[in-house]
Amino acid sequence: MEENIRMSTKSEIIRYAFGGLGSNIPFLLILAYLMFYLTDVVGISPIAVGGLFLIARIIDAVTDPMMGMIADQTRSKFGKFRPYVIFGAPVLGIVTIALFNVPDMSSNMQVTYIYVIYILYSLISTVVNIPYHSLTPVLSEDGNQRTTIATAKTFMSVPATLIINVMVLPMVAIFGGGQQGWTTTSIILGITLTISFWVCASSAKRHDVSAKHDDQNLKPQFSLKEQISLIGKNKPLLMIMIAMCTNLIATSAVGAIALYYFTYNLGRADLFPLQSLVAIPFTVLAFISLPYLARKIGKRNVFLYGSILAILPLLVILFTPYEFIWIIFAAAVLTTALGPFTGNIAWAMLPDCVDYAEWKTGVRGDGVVTSSLTFINKLGTALGGLLGGVLLGVSGYVANQVQSPETLQSIVIIYALLPIGGHIFTIIALKFYKLDNQFHKQIITELKERKRALRAATE
């Protein structure tokens, strides 16, 4: 007789979703404003800013899998993953504040400061976000509920987008503009993300308890080499990593350059927060439909078809003359609204890859497998930011000036053409992803049979 499948309550799912708010606030803040803040408020070269993102990702290539392994082998009264969320959240809030508070000193010192703080931010983000995302498979063993949990946490990108893309610039203006406005705004956001992660950590108290729910306490601990093999032998995970990386290159390029596009190409900076606000109801509908579509056509197909659809509004932006501003505006809204059907669905696919790794190798490494996707999340964002910064810099961009035709053309390329290329590579990668709903149910059944046999052998 099959064991009861462990599941979460509605209250636990809602509280866990708050981690999505805490995670997305600094992510979207940096994606939308860090380059603009550093180039137009502080005065740092866009090429230097682009290099910053790349260096941090090189460090992440080492620290992310290490953090996954450390979290997997943690045993504490707070659980395996919760202590990192609880104690790391306030530190993440502090370094986020520091990112938007560059001291008034020489240009070289400012560049050094932002490099140090951003690398520190990246490290602390790793410490908090890998355990946070690792809790998704811990909260439930049911495949459909995991989709609901992943959808709930990614849905919190909607209020995060409302806060960041719609409210940040008005908040900066209300609090005095310039550096003073950014200081006050970043403090409020740092406090908000900290509280959000604390609410999230409270949701997993019943589940993240090694003594009750960690079947690995029946087995010896595994080495770093064995844990890393969970990634290399996991074809579905590798395909998601490629798909998400190229998707994030696409979306981060749009996010990083959007304010430049509305400011300099369209001459309507006021439309930037408005398009985010208008997109919110459509994004909410997309999130509501996500669990249904995932059950109906499969998570992989949601990602695949969403990526195909995402190309269409970008083509409109690429070829529409600037005088048809409201057509461009509508396409920008649609680009934002389609987000849940592209990158967000990947987080619902990740727990299935954790199960696949255990089924394939006999090793369950929630943290290590999760770290692969959190690293890709940061790598794709960095590559999009790097390409954006380099292309913007070599095109002759000068902050707060009328831009040359070459610069304006580069902004269009970064905003529309580069994302189209990213989505195309995502589509290709997803063609090789074979872990559908039926296969996953088979994996869960076999894993339970193995665990019953293991318990019987140890009794």
From TrEMBL:
<feature type="transmembrane region" description="Helical">
    <location>
        <begin position="237"/>
        <end position="262"/>
    </location>
</feature>
<keyword id="KW-0813">Transport</keyword>
<dbReference type="InterPro" id="IPR036259">
    <property type="entry name" value="MFS_trans_sf"/>
</dbReference>
<dbReference type="InterPro" id="IPR001927">
    <property type="entry name" value="Na/Gal_symport"/>
</dbReference>
<feature type="transmembrane region" description="Helical">
    <location>
        <begin position="42"/>
        <end position="60"/>
    </location>
</feature>
<feature type="transmembrane region" description="Helical">
    <location>
        <begin position="16"/>
        <end position="36"/>
    </location>
</feature>
<dbReference type="InterPro" id="IPR018043">
    <property type="entry name" value="Na/Gal_symport_CS"/>
</dbReference>
<feature type="transmembrane region" description="Helical">
    <location>
        <begin position="379"/>
        <end position="399"/>
    </location>
</feature>
<feature type="transmembrane region" description="Helical">
    <location>
        <begin position="81"/>
        <end position="100"/>
    </location>
</feature>
<keyword id="KW-1133">Transmembrane helix</keyword>
<feature type="transmembrane region" description="Helical">
    <location>
        <begin position="274"/>
        <end position="294"/>
    </location>
</feature>
<keyword id="KW-0769">Symport</keyword>
<feature type="transmembrane region" description="Helical">
    <location>
        <begin position="154"/>
        <end position="175"/>
    </location>
</feature>
<keyword id="KW-0812">Transmembrane</keyword>
<feature type="transmembrane region" description="Helical">
    <location>
        <begin position="411"/>
        <end position="433"/>
    </location>
</feature>
<dbReference type="Pfam" id="PF13347">
    <property type="entry name" value="MFS_2"/>
</dbReference>
<dbReference type="InterPro" id="IPR039672">
    <property type="entry name" value="MFS_2"/>
</dbReference>
<feature type="transmembrane region" description="Helical">
    <location>
        <begin position="181"/>
        <end position="201"/>
    </location>
</feature>
<feature type="transmembrane region" description="Helical">
    <location>
        <begin position="301"/>
        <end position="319"/>
    </location>
</feature>
<feature type="transmembrane region" description="Helical">
    <location>
        <begin position="325"/>
        <end position="350"/>
    </location>
</feature>
<keyword id="KW-1003">Cell membrane</keyword>
<keyword id="KW-0472">Membrane</keyword>
<feature type="transmembrane region" description="Helical">
    <location>
        <begin position="112"/>
        <end position="133"/>
    </location>
</feature>
<protein>
    <submittedName>
        <fullName>Glycoside-pentoside-hexuronide (GPH):cation symporter</fullName>
    </submittedName>
</protein>
